[in-house]
From TrEMBL:
Pfam families: PTS-HPr. InterPro entries: HPr (IPR050399), HPr-like (IPR000032), HPr-like_sf (IPR035895). CDD domains: PTS-HPr_like. This is HPr family phosphocarrier protein. It comes from the Bacteria. It comes from Gracilibacillus xinjiangensis. Residues 1-84 form the HPr domain.
Length: 84
């Protein structure tokens, strides 16, 4: 299991199109992937869960991945969230 705290730096945050793109990326990995914010943990492969967090640009979240490709998934998703 790997974890990383990241600051959202995509406009307008993880809402609408960026949220859909994030979930699509997350679903391309076999690892379990979660996002934690304010002690609430959601499955990062669920668009409804992601939208429930209402993640705006500048919010800090924790990405958590556990599985055979967890390190690769974490790096790819963190890069996407950080806008790099």
């Amino acid at each position: 299991m790997v974890e990383k705290n990241v600051i959202i730096d995509v406009e307008p945050g993880l809402q609408a199109r960026p949220a859909a793109q994030f979930v699509q990326k997350a679903n391309s990995y076999s690892s379990e992937i979660f996002i934690e914010k304010d002690q609430k943990r959601i499955n990062a492969k669920s668009i409804m869960g992601l939208m429930s967090l209402a993640l705006a640009r500048g919010n800090e979240i924790k990405l958590i991945a556990d599985g055979p490709d967890d390190q690769e998934a974490l790096e790819d998703l963190a890069s996407f969230v950080e806008g790099t």
